[in-house]
Specification:
The protein is of the alpha/beta class. About 35% of the residues lie in helices and about 10% in strands. Helix 1 runs parallel beside helix 2 and helix 6 packs across helix 8. The relative contact order is 0.13. The structure holds iron/sulfur cluster (SF4) (2 copies). The site of one iron/sulfur cluster has 12 residues, from helix 12, helix 13 and helix 14.
Length: about 450
């Protein structure tokens, strides 16, 4: 998500990170945890394809609304490749038609990778798109929830897409969800991306699917229509979670497991978004809305021009309006959107307000705030336990990296600091990742085997 810009109430934010959904919620896959599939119910009897008129209005208003030279044109879904390449060629033409002198455009494109081929990748490279590719880990882990309409795993198709992207030199960020299937395999998942795929940019997103207790059995089946015809429209309500949802504490352990590998071997070589976000927050710079004090600068645009407060709140109560009726700039400056962003700070529980890592965490995303705090206050973050563990566990190394950066030295110097500590460790000591295993069986030993996409399986 976008960096936090200064909110100027009369005009709205100078810059924002709009996620456009040209094919609405439609997708060629049927990933079990993807609650966006249920949003089809918001637009019944609608083919869910953005028209050229909406595309033009979107691009024009986006460029007009920005008061910074940098503008991000971000495509998401559903699955945007379903629109076909001509749609995106047209979008680039509209950008060229409406961009003002000095405006620099960054294109981003989130995809499941299944339809990518040489023609797509040549286009993405030509216009320097930054592509987010959804992969959840080695084959068995990925295939657990990322399945096609026939319920079959999609690992091989996604890896094929990855190879096309690599061959064309497209910049790719791996987007991996953290869910019940991979939560205990942090290091293995990370090493597969690093060694098996050769990825250098990664992002880990926790799966938290809320439901009411009454709807939970149906929600556990997945979010697309059931054979019985029954379906649930996902909304951010209810305090139950599906069986695919990551366990808070294990989410923290997953991140620590990766951090302990990364901080020993890969600082400055491999970029994990959440680690960068945490290091930036040490300097008071909040580069991810989720851990910024306020939010409200990541709206979502539906295929028909409806603008919503956030990608996670595409539901009736959070619709700001339609860009064919009201200019995007006005919608972004509306009191409704301002309130949405400020509530993130103003509705922090007391536990968050008094928390020692609050300057780094800021209570996380409002969509995850549905459990009671320690003292029973409602609206606390479901992921708190794991977040607290991660932020406290990584503080010593983060402080070393921050210190190095302040001296204009590379953060990678932290690896020597860690190596000096490891030299004093005995083989039977408990591993510093705190998962209870011995050092010699955990981060003290090399990654078990070279992970190639052909051989990678879930393993231990
Ligand atoms: S609700 Fe969450 S994801 Fe949406 S803008 Fe706010 S912090 Fe970001
Ligand atoms: S770690 Fe927990 S208590 Fe602390 S700020 Fe984050 S959500 Fe709040």
């Amino acid at each position: 998500m976008a960096a936090s810009p200064e909110f100027r109430p009369a005009e709205g934010p100078p810059r924002f990170h709009l996620l456009a959904k040209p094919s609405g919620s439609t997708c060629n896959l049927d990933c079990t945890y993807c609650f966006f599939l249920s949003k089809e119910a918001l637009y019944p009897d609608d083919r869910q394809r953005m028209t050229e008129a909406t595309l033009e209005a979107y691009i024009r208003q986006l460029l007009e609304s920005h008061r910074t030279p940098e503008v991000t044109v971000a495509w998401q879904g559903g699955e945007p490749t379903l629109m076909g390449l001509d749609f995106f060629r047209k979008s680039v033409e509209f950008v060229e038609k409406y961009r003002r002198p000095g405006q620099q455009i960054e294109y981003t494109f989130q995809t499941n990778g299944v339809l990518l081929d040489d023609t797509w990748c040549a286009f993405l490279k030509q216009h320097e798109f930054l592509v987010g590719l959804s992969v959840d880990g080695p084959r068995e882990i990925h295939n657990r929830y990322r399945v096609n309409k026939g319920g079959e795993g999609t690992f091989d198709q996604v890896v094929r897409g990855w190879e096309h992207l690599r061959r064309h030199g497209v910049e790719v960020n791996i987007l991996c969800t953290v869910n019940a299937a991979n939560q205990d395999h942090g290091r293995k998942v990370y090493c597969f991306f690093r060694d098996g795929l050769g990825a250098r940019y990664m992002q880990f997103i926790p799966i938290v699917e809320r439901s009411t207790p009454e709807l939970l059995p149906l929600a556990n089946l997945g979010w697309s229509g059931q054979p019985s015809g029954a379906r649930v429209l996902y909304t951010q309500t209810g305090s139950a979670v599906t069986e695919r949802t990551v366990v808070s504490e294990r989410h923290g352990q997953f991140l620590i497991d990766i951090f302990e590998e990364w901080v020993r071997h890969d600082v400055g070589e491999v970029f994990v978004q959440f680690f960068d976000v945490t290091l930036n927050a040490m300097f008071g710079r909040h580069t991810l809305c989720i851990h910024a004090p306020t939010c409200g600068y990541g709206p979502a645009l539906e295929h028909n021009g409806d603008l919503y407060s956030c990608d996670h709140f595409v539901e009736p109560g959070f619709r700001l309006g339609n860009i064919h009726e009201t200019h995007m700039r006005e919608l972004m400056a509306s009191s409704q959107q301002r309130r949405f962003g400020l509530d993130k700070r103003d509705r922090l529980t007391r536990q968050c307000q008094e928390c020692e890592v609050r300057p780094l965490c800021n209570g996380g995303c409002p969509k995850d705030r549905f459990v009671p705090s320690h003292d029973g206050e409602p609206g606390h973050n479901y992921l708190c336990q794991g977040l607290f563990r991660f932020f406290t566990h990584t503080q010593p190394a983060m402080r070393v990296m921050a210190g190095l950066l302040q001296q204009n030295r590379p953060a990678a110097g932290v690896m020597a600091w860690i190596a000096a500590q490891d030299a004093k460790r005995r083989r039977n000591d408990t591993c510093p990742c705190e998962n209870g295993r011995k050092w010699k069986h955990c981060h003290g030993r090399d990654v078990p085997q070279s992970l190639s996409p052909d051989t990678a399986s879930a393993g231990a």
